[in-house]
Every structure is written in C-alpha cells, then in structure tokens.
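Entry 14. Ran structure prediction on the chain below.
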Amino acid sequence: MPGRRMRRAVRRLKERIALNPRTFKLYSVLRVLVIVTLVRCIMTQRWEGVAICALVLVLFLVPALIEDRGQLEIPPLFQNIIYIFIFAAEILGEVDHYYVLVPGWDTVLHTINGFLCAAVGFSLVDLLNRSSKKVSLSPVYVTLVAFCFSMTVGVMWEFVEFGFDTTLGLDMQKDTVVTSISTVSLDPTHTGRRVRIDDIVDTAITTASGKTTHIHGGYLDIGIIDTMKDLLVNFVGAVAFSIIGYRHLSRGEPTGWAEGLRVTPVTPAEDREEEREIDLMERKREAGRPR
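Output, structure tokens:
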C-alpha cells in the first residue's frame, strides 16, 4: 500500500524530529500555524496559498529526511533556524504578504539565506575534508568554498525569480520607483553619450490600445535594484558566516554557538541508537491507540 508506506515514512520523520524535544516543540507550533493558514486559505479560496502551505509542510520534513538518508546530524540550532526561515519566507512572506507590508522583510530573509547557505556549504566541504584520508583542506579553503557556495545559490535563485517573472508574468523581482535615471539609450546621436534625467515625478505608460497608466512619484525600475540588493545582502550573510566558520576551524573550538551550525556525520553505533529510540516511540504510539 503506497499510501500506508508514505504515512509511516512521514511518522518516522516526525519521530526523528522528536528526538530533540525543543526542536520538536518549535516544529509542532509552526506546523499548527501552517495548518491554520491552510484552512484559512481554503475558506477564502486562495488556492495559491493552499499550495504554498502544502509545500511548507513538506519542507519542514526535509532536514529529518536528510539526517535519515545521509546518516548525518543537523544540530538543533541549525534546524530551528531552517524552520523559522521557511515559515517567515513562505507563510508570512508569500501568503500573508509581509514582503509588501513590512519594509525590509525581503532584505532580512536574503541576508539569513546567505548565512544559511554558507553554513550548508561549509558543512558539505567540512564533511568531505574530514572523511578523506588523502586530502586535508586548510580552514581558508573550506571557508572560501562555503562563501562561493552561498553566493552561487543566491545567483541561481535570482535566475529562478527572473525566469518566473518573464515566463509567468510574476513580480518576484520586486520593482522600485526611482526619481532619476542615467542611460545611453536616450542619446539621440547614438554615440554612447550618457543622458541623465533627475527629479522625475510622473511616468506615463501608453499601450497599443491607447490605455495610459501613470506611475506617480518617479520612474519604475524593473527588478534590477531589487536583484542587486538581494545579492548584496546575500554577500553580507555569506561573509558573516565565513568569518565565524574560519575562526571556528582555525582555533579548533570544540564548542560554541558556531558548533550549532555544523553538520556532522553519525557513527553506525549512534545511528543504531537513534533507530532504537524511534522504534520505541513508534511502539508506544501503537500501544496507546484504542483497539
């Protein structure tokens, strides 16, 4: 039964999350909030919101799935940040329109994204570095790869936004109203002379049908300012974690909050112990069910 196997697999992922009580509490609270939002979207027939909520419920299980399939341990701090980031980006940002209603919401999330992606890149290279007997990478190299990984993810995401905007007519690359422009496109001599227009207060857009739309307050920049701002704050987040990661590796610190962002491999003995705990939770659940 594919449906039964799927439900059992989801239950086991939840039980894996429950191995850390604090992380499970956060997961449970956010999951309830997502379900409430899902019901609200169904009642208001916001089907795009319904799809986003369903996606978020799946994304919440991805860290546990990675731990299960990769025999890795994602620290609770890292998992908590991931859960909060997903909720803030998709539920608050997309469904509840915080990207539009709250100034700087997109900027904060892109900064966190740069930080998290650098942490992921750092962990991937660090895992390969520690598992190889022939290669020993310096802290500088590991940090550089983590930084480049984060920036690459940021650039690829901007490609995704641009693709959706051009093919589906969305506005993921949010437009910005500016009051001055500088361009060679308006040079009547076509010699590359820069033409600058300042103090723009109104822009009129006329379509082939004769309809005119006015943009009050200036000229509409189509996405480029938003894109460059997103990449800039992604850079800030990547640099911030790179500094933390470098200091962590170069000093060989066994503890500290940086350790809470470092994914580590699970030994076979630890994996067997976790499986025993999950099996025990499953048996307790089955025993508590009414027959």
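The chain has a mean pLDDT of 89. Will compare against last week's run tomorrow.
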